[in-house]
Every structure is written in C-alpha cells, then in structure tokens.
C-alpha cells in the first residue's frame, strides 16, 4: 500500500499514544476503531475521517482540532488569521454594528475573489432593521448591487492589472 501524505498525523498520533502510556490495542478499543486500522493510520497508510479523528482525540484526551490540522482537514494558520481579522473588526469601538457587518462582507468578498473564502463565517449582515442588507445589495458579492462594497465592479480590472 502506498503511503498517503498523512505520515505527520500518524507520527503525532503514535507520540500522543505513547505519552498517554497506551498500547495500540488499548487506544483502538477506547476510540472504537479496529487495531489494524489504527496501526495503518499511525504508519501513514490510511487517512481517517474527521469522525474517527474525533474519537481518537477523545480517547487520547487531546484536541480534535489539532488532529484535523495534522490530517489536512483544517488549515490552522489561515483559519486563525481570518478569525483574528474578524475579531478586530468586531471589537473596533469606532464602528457601528452596520459598518462592522458591511466591512465583514467586503472582507469575505475579497477572500472569495482570492480563492480563500468559504462564505460561512461572516453570514448575512443583520442589524435589526435590515439596513446593512440593503447597503450591500442583499449580501451577495456577485449580484452587482453592492454599492457599499463598490469594489466588486472593478474586480476584473484588478486581476488583469496585477
């Protein structure tokens, strides 16, 4: 069996298992997976699902997120940078709620344009009376109605210039 690019995960799991002073069989039993399957994960021959990683993390009493990052399911640095950017915007006392939501939508549209956006984190802008939704053309960065964002109409020009 050819090795998948999950050796780092397997090595890390083996190290954590040994630190917990568990045998391969004990960890497999605690996580509810087969002994051979866990062995293959540790040797980098299998890429486990997020569910299996969660079970193993619980059995080892470590963060499942750490295993997700090592397995390539999450990109920790990019996710952390995005979360920090959003937190700074939301914490800025000089902006009102509508402005914060519009800024988050603009930020998300730029991330999508650059191939990083998921569209899930910012969500639709809501400040109670719907003004943020109207200001951004309903929250869609592709409908051309985002006069508050303004940058969507020049996106094609920016790409060809750079």
TrEMBL record:
Which residues belong to any copy of the HTH cro/C1-type domain? 13-67
The organism's place on the tree of life at top rank: Bacteria
- Tell me the SUPFAM superfamilies matching this sequence: lambda repressor-like DNA-binding domains (SSF47413)
User: Known Pfam families for this protein?
Assistant: HTH_3
Q: Does the keyword section mention Signal?
A: no
Q: Which InterPro entries does this UniProt record tie to the protein? A: Cro/C1-type_HTH, Lambda_DNA-bd_dom_sf, TransReg_Diox_bact_type
Q: What spans are recorded as compositionally biased (Gly residues)?
A: 136-148
Provide the alphabetized UniProt keywords: DNA-binding
Spell out the coiled coil positions from the record: none
What residue spans carry the region label Disordered? 114-162
- The name under which this protein is listed is Helix-turn-helix domain-containing protein
Its ancestry begins with: Bacteria, Bacillati, Actinomycetota, Actinomycetes, Kitasatosporales
């Amino acid at each position: 069996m050819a090795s998948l690019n999950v050796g780092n995960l397997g090595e890390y799991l083996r190290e954590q298992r040994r630190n917990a002073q568990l045998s391969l069989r004990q960890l497999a039993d605690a996580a509810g997976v087969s002994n051979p399957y866990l062995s293959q994960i540790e040797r980098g021959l299998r890429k486990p699902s997020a569910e299996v990683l969660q079970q193993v993390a619980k059995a080892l009493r470590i963060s499942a997120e750490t295993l997700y990052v090592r397995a390539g399911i999450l990109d920790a640095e990019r996710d952390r940078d995005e979360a920090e950017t959003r937190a700074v915007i939301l914490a800025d006392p000089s902006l009102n709620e509508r402005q914060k939501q519009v800024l988050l939508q603009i930020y998300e549209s730029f991330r999508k344009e650059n191939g990083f956006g998921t569209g899930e984190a910012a969500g639709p802008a809501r400040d109670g009376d719907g003004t943020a939704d109207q200001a951004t053309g309903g929250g869609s960065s592709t409908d051309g109605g985002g006069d508050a964002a303004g940058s969507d109409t020049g996106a094609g020009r920016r790409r060809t210039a750079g």
